[in-house]
Design goal:
It is a single chain. The chain is of the alpha/beta class. It has three domains: about 50-215 and about 330-455, 3-Layer(aba) Sandwich (Rossmann fold), CATH 3.40.50.150; about 225-320, no CATH class; about 465-565, no CATH class. The protein is built from 16 helices and 29 strands. A nine-stranded mixed β-sheet has the order 1-24-2-21-20-3-6-8-7, with helices on both faces. Strands 25-26-27-28-29 form a five-stranded mixed β-sheet. Strand 9 (about 225-230) and strand 10 (about 230-240) form a beta hairpin. Helix 9 (about 365-375) crosses helix 10. The two termini are about 40 Å apart. The mean pLDDT is about 90.
């Protein structure tokens, strides 16, 4: 019990319970069907009341490549970053992929700076509250055609499905994909050895979204699968043993005759008059040797439908009909049971060990899984956001895809620096992938993938809701504005204004004081340059028409009031 409750009188406690019941009843009436939970306070939410998060560009971490799109790694609390992205990238994201905390109770989910354990009565409410705040903003970031992909396991999959139904509308649900990560299965689990997690896929608007087929490689296209009344099959191994332990002497019970109908359409382990008698005999060194069958007499009879009769009378042989294992049959349309051998969780760990020489993270997602999800849900020019970036698998996967198909996908990765993961793993991994590295496991060089990267950090400015406070916030917004406009080259900076541009000739003008505004046009060299103007003004010093007159030789794409920029 909360210690504060002990100080309350009975009447106060009764009133508190009535207020809680009233709140829950109100919520339940608002949501006639779906997920209802008690919203839990989160420290990072209350932080907004006293401080404003802003972006600062860590120029020392820049990786430049003028031939490749610029990607971003943002270090900071993801709710704060999402609030910034709500300003800078509203309806701009094509695909969101996230791998959030699974809330297993085993120190994987932190709420208000404390791990949530299995004994916490509000364990699920805390997780749902945590996710709801972030997913609501995530929806605003997606284009109308955008998609969101979420990895999860049994602990929260059902709560997450209901939550996503409420936020994105159940009509925009695409799939809940059992995603096989361990074919052997987790032998430590009770009763059933778990082989899979889940991947939930939603769109912002199903009517505006398209999905891609899976590309088939040449080997898959060549697979010669046939179909009978029992399902798909292809030729498997011969049923006659020929190894050193396959002799009749060592396998006496598996040496027996099989009779085959003259036209090869039937067989029997019992003698049938007029049929060919076949024994498991092989010729070695010109001499017949008695071997054995790999199946018992009983299995020959029970599984005749799984036997292929090869050859012609009187010389017959038998092969097994190989029925497909999970994921073996190729299909252009992605399957609802999501599996490839490369999706194994072991691959994710192995990939990190190759980069760092050590297992630096528990259960990282493998590259192949993320690549296929992005191929299905995105395009070659997609902007992809991952606000639970962890070890940076999403960024690495995107660099791989761009290298493989000459795409120009871009990513925004977001992660806090818990256990210095951004510092020691995420940035390092992306840097190595871009520039190439020596695999620490195989000792082989891995070719560079190329790409450009900017490292952004979240800083905070005190917000006291005063003119001075607003001015200080505005003076600290330059990097945030440059991030939005993608203009990083400094043309001019002083106490009155700042000018930035990019290689395409686009300008961003930030005006803090209108005293020197007439000097700005002379600093813009390109004729009829495209520029966006951000202005801080407490009074109507210069209206938009006066500004248009001053910049008449340029094309003003937008004029934005700075206070409204960060308070919207």
């Amino acid at each position: 019990m909360n210690e504060d409750y002990k100080k309350l009188s009975n009447d106060d406690l009764i009133q508190l319970l009535k207020d809680r019941d009233s709140k829950l009843n109100k919520i339940s009436k608002q949501i006639p069907y779906g997920l209802v939970w008690e919203d839990k306070d989160e420290t990072v939410v209350s932080d907004f009341r006293t401080k404003t998060p802003v972006i600062k560009i860590n120029k020392s971490k820049d990786i430049e490549d003028k031939n490749q799109p610029t990607n971003y790694l943002i270090e900071g609390e993801n709710l704060h970053v999402l609030k910034i992205l709500e300003t800078t990238h509203s309806e701009s994201i094509d695909v969101i992929y996230i791998d959030p905390p699974y809330n297993t109770g085993n120190k994987d989910f932190i709420f208000n700076d404390e791990y949530v354990d299995k004994e916490d009565l509000f364990r699920h409410s805390k997780w749902v509250s945590f996710m709801e705040k972030r997913l609501k903003i995530a929806k605003t970031l997606l284009k109308p055609s955008g998609k969101i992909i979420v990895s999860i396991d049994d602990n929260e999959v059902f709560n997450l499905k209901l939550l996503l139904d409420q936020i994105f509308n159940e009509n925009n649900f695409i799939a809940c994909l059992p995603t096989v990560m361990n074919l052997k299965g987790n032998q430590d689990q009770f009763a059933f050895a778990g082989t899979h997690e889940y991947t939930l896929v939603y769109t912002k608007d199903k009517n505006k979204s398209q999905f891609n087929d899976m590309p088939l490689n040449e080997q898959e296209i060549k697979e010669d699968w046939k179909e009978d009344e029992f399902g798909l099959w292809k030729e498997g191994r011969y049923l006659k043993f020929t190894g050193k332990n396959a002799s009749r002497e060592k396998q006496p019970t598996l040496y027996f005759p099989v009779w085959v109908k003259k036209d090869g359409t039937d067989l029997s382990t019992k003698e049938v008059k007029g049929w060919d008698k076949i024994l498991p005999i092989t010729i070695k060194g010109g001499k017949p040797q008695e071997m054995s069958w790999s199946w018992s007499k009983k299995k020959f009879e029970e599984e005749k439908f799984n036997i292929i009769i090869k050859g012609s009378s009187p010389d017959w042989s038998f092969k097994k009909k190989q029925r497909p294992n999970i994921g073996e049959v190729p299909s252009k349309r992605p399957k609802s049971l999501f599996y490839k051998p490369e999706y194994s969780s072991t691959n994710g760990a192995t990939q990190l060990e190759g980069i760092f020489g050590d297992r630096v993270f528990d259960y990282p997602k493998p590259l192949g899984l993320i690549e296929d999800l992005l191929l299905i849900c995105g395009n070659k020019d997609s902007l992809i956001l991952d606000f639970f970036a962890g070890t940076g698998t999403t960024g690495h996967a995107i660099l791989n895809l761009n290298k493989n198909d000459a795409g120009c996908r871009k990513f925004i990765l977001v992660s806090n620096n818990e256990n210095k993961i951004v510092e020691n793993v995420t940035y390092s991994r992306i840097s190595k992938a871009i520039n190439g590295y020596k695999n620490r496991t195989t000792n082989k060089n891995v070719e560079k993938l190329g790409g450009a990267l900017k490292k952004l950090d979240i800083h905070y400015v005190e917000n006291e809701n005063t003119d001075y406070s607003n001015y200080e916030i505005s003076k600290n917004l330059s990097d945030t504005i440059c991030f939005k406009e993608e203009t990083y080259e400094v043309v001019k900076k002083n106490n009155y204004f700042e000018i930035y541009k990019n290689e395409k000739g686009k300008y961003t003008v930030i005006i803090f004081d209108f005293s020197d505004i007439e000097k700005i046009p002379s600093l813009i060299k390109e004729k009829d340059a495209e520029l966006t103007i951000y202005k801080y003004q407490l009074a109507a010093d210069y209206d938009e028409y006066v500004i248009e007159e001053i910049f008449q030789n340029n094309t003003i794409t937008d004029q934005i009031d700075i206070p409204s920029f960060y308070t919207q």
